[in-house]
Specification:
Blueprint (H helix, E strand, L loop, with lengths): L2 E11 L2 E14 L2 E11 L3 H15 L25 E7 L1 H12 L2 H8 L9 H14 L4 H11 L2 H5 L8 H11 L3 H16 L5 E10 L24 E8 L5 E8 L8 H12 L5 E4 L6 H9 L3 E5 L9 H6 L3 E4 L2 E9 L3 E8 H31 L4 H14 L1 H4 L2 E7 L5 E7 L1 H10 L2 E6 L6 H9 L1 H13 L11 H27 L6 H8 L3 E8 L5 E7 L4 H10 L6 E2 L9
Parallel strand pairs: 5-8, 8-9
Antiparallel strand pairs: 1-2, 2-3, 4-16, 5-6, 6-7, 9-15, 10-11, 11-12, 12-15, 13-14, 16-17, 17-18
Helix pairs in contact: 2-4, 3-4, 4-7, 4-18, 7-18, 8-18, 12-13
């Protein structure tokens, strides 16, 4: 467990001294110990704590179950045998408590209580849904692991009022089935709730697609098909997930497609569904270059939908003159743009050149050039040692160039037949191709129907696609979206929905943390809060009875500071089940 420390910096401004604090932790890297900054805490003054408290009240509101915490102590005096005082039932408390508060903050507790009435269910389905999503947020795992291990190690049962023996894998699977039919209403509710909490704008919608693969044959799922795998698992069946996020990376909705579906064929479906649900006016779609075909763009223009999209690299040659001699305008360090080739009333083309991207492309090209030259040298040496078949040598050269396509066009390779029937290999560099590669490195073209934006604004909007990519990365790694172990189609859909809801909670925590001055580190916060435990204090009395209090361990200094910045206050005690307090 890394150690946490407080470090401060003193700054004097206008004769007044300010002390700025930061939370750091010691991490061992090999033989060295380094300190990493967990959060910038600013000035730990009373005004800051008041602002944090106001922020917390705006996000999570007031306590909705006042009888759950801080059960009153007995009024009559009790004589306790201190020699037999003991602690029992230690549980992880802080992370599930924080997840539960986030669940309340986005209003899913009230919404699902309305959508999933208890009826004859022994445990309300709304509470079982909370177990699934909070578990996915805090410790992603299977339903079986939740039922057999995770749930009993946490205090989530105390928070939700669920006995440990009531959570089993069958009930969790049935909770998935109960949750899935309400996907659209959940998305609409979250769009409204997050928009209110964080004053979101929904003018710019970013759409991207990813894949997640299956472990198993998934024979009962018609959408499980083999296709282009972004997980580098072409041996496994997969489904595609198309996600729509706002310009700030907040999720708006998603759809699941068959694993062999072409990305570009999903755009019409997504645009139609989202605009039918939330309206078309004022929407601008941002799409990656691999997502669209000309027919799709024509369809968007016909229906007067605005877009900003990347273009295939091959289209750069249409703007060769502008690349070499255009009027580049610097918009920031290392980035230049220019508007070119406008089609009046239809599209604008924005030519962009990035210094960082140019350096990366040059390094990659040099690496592939080196591989090709080494490979050709080996082939020529082999041909010199023995008489090689010309056809085999040509195929060997083709395989070499096929593995290094980024630099294959820079070489002109000739395989000729020698007088003795063997093969002779020679090559030369194509100077015109090298000149174009040097001139165009770091360049790419955007196209858009947004006429009243400057080139810099269009570029910045397109760069927001990284928020969609980050959402996929978080769901796949931190929330364990992949691989999918479910085999039934409906369970797969429900699994993806649970991951989506957990991502909403995580994104809410990230925004809350940023506004509280703690940076964007929800993983660190969850890890730190997971160290806060609850435990039962059992006090034997001299009268032969036992008095039990379910207490929350007092947080240490670092945890207290995090709580203060978030505007939260841990409860001191939890309410015990009826009849357990005194035995």
């Amino acid at each position: 467990m890394p150690l946490m420390y407080l470090r401060h910096t003193t700054v004097t401004k206008n004769g007044k001294t300010h002390t700025y604090w930061r939370l750091v932790r010691s991490v061992r890297v090999g033989r060295k110990v380094r300190q990493e900054t967990v959060a910038q805490l600013g000035e730990l003054d009373s005004a800051g704590r008041v602002r944090a408290r106001a922020l917390a009240e705006a996000i999570v509101g007031v306590e909705r179950q006042p009888g759950l915490f801080d059960e009153p102590l007995p009024k009559e005096p009790i004589t306790v045998d201190l020699r037999r005082l003991r602690l029992e039932r230690g549980r992880r408390f802080g992370d599930v408590w924080l997840g539960w508060r986030l669940w309340q903050a986005v209003g899913l507790d009230e919404l699902l209580t309305c959508l999933l009435p208890a009826r004859r269910a022994e445990i309300p389905w709304a509470q079982m849904a909370a177990v699934l999503v909070i578990a996915r947020l805090c410790e992603p795992s299977s339903e079986l692991h939740i039922a057999e291990d995770w749930f009993r190690r946490t205090a989530l049962g105390d928070l939700l009022g669920i006995a440990e023996d009531k959570v089993n894998d069958d009930r969790l699977y049935r909770a998935l089935d109960q949750l899935l039919p309400h996907k659209q209403m959940l998305e609409e509710h979250l769009k409204q709730r997050l928009g209110t909490l964080f004053a979101l704008e929904y003018d710019l919608l970013l759409y991207d697609i990813t894949s997640t693969y299956f472990e198993g044959q998934a024979l009962a799922n018609p959408q499980a098909q083999r296709g282009y795998s972004r997980d580098h698992r072409p041996d496994c069946k997969q489904v595609l997930i198309g996600l729509v996020v706002t310009r700030d990376g907040y999720p708006l909705g998603y759809e699941v497609f068959a694993g062999n579906r072409n990305d570009s064929t999903t755009v019409k479906e997504i645009v139609t569904r989202m605009e039918a649900r939330y309206g078309r006016d004022g929407r601008i779609w941002v799409l990656d270059r691999g997502m669209v075909l000309e027919a799709t763009l024509d369809w968007l223009k016909e229906r007067r939908s605005h877009y900003i999209v990347g273009t295939p690299r091959a289209r750069l040659k249409e703007f060769a003159q502008a690349v070499r001699h255009g009027g580049w305008q610097a918009v920031r360090d290392g980035l230049e743009v220019q508007r070119c080739g406008d089609a009046p009333g239809e599209e604008s083309f924005i030519l962009c050149r990035s210094a960082d991207r140019a350096a990366k492309e040059q390094a990659m090209r040099e690496r592939f050039v080196g591989r090709i030259e080494v490979g050709l040298t080996k082939i020529r040496t082999a041909c010199g040692r023995q008489r090689c078949d010309v056809g085999k040598v040509e195929r060997r050269v083709g395989r070499l160039l096929g593995k290094n396509t980024r630099a294959a066009g820079l070489f002109r390779v000739t395989v000729a037949r020698r007088s003795d029937g063997g093969a002779r290999v020679s090559w030369s560099r194509r100077l015109d191709a090298e000149e174009w590669a040097q001139a165009s490195q770091g360049c790419y073209v955007l196209r858009s129907t947004v006429a009243d934006w400057q080139p810099e604004e269009l570029w910045r909007a397109y760069m927001h696609l990284t928020d969609a990519e980050a959402a996929f990365r978080i769901q796949k790694s931190d929330l364990a979206l992949r691989p999918v172990w479910h085999q039934k189609a409906e369970r797969v859909q429900a699994h993806i929905l649970v991951c989506f809801l957990a991502f909403v909670l995580r994104k809410t925590l990230e925004a809350w943390s940023a506004r509280a001055g703690l940076g964007n580190s929800p993983t660190t916060l969850l890890q730190e809060f997971a160290r806060i435990h609850s435990t039962d204090v059992v006090a034997p009395t001299t009268a032969g009875r036992h008095v039990r209090w379910r207490c929350v361990v007092r947080p240490d200094q670092a945890q207290t500071i995090l709580l203060q910045h978030l505007g939260l206050q841990l409860p001191q005690r939890l309410q015990l089940p009826r009849g357990l307090g005194r035995m």
